[in-house]
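Reference record:
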Amino acid sequence: MQAGKLLRSEGFIFDRAYTSVLKRCIVSLHTVLEELEQLWIPEEKCWRLNERHYGGLQDQVKSEVAQKVGEKQAKDWETQLCLPTARYTDPFSFSFSYDVHMTAHATKGLCWI
């Protein structure tokens, strides 16, 4: 709410908004836009704006990853945000089928980013 008030006091006007597909991010965007009285502007949601993507670990079972790479490495990847995760062998091999929000965006060409 404070961010919206600050943006409003500085006279910000937006013609489009971008957010991730995470619920809390969407709610935050709507809170700011409501404060700005700009709820009417178009918004784009994209999974690529999520804070963290787990690279080659995405969609894998945690216990199976730990078995492959060791408990310590698996825990480090999980807890250390600045540590790069395993790379994809095939960048298009991951699946969005586990999450209806992701599936909706995957079928639209993965979004603009």
Summary: Residues 21 and 101 are 7 Å apart (CA to CA). The radius of gyration is 18 Å.
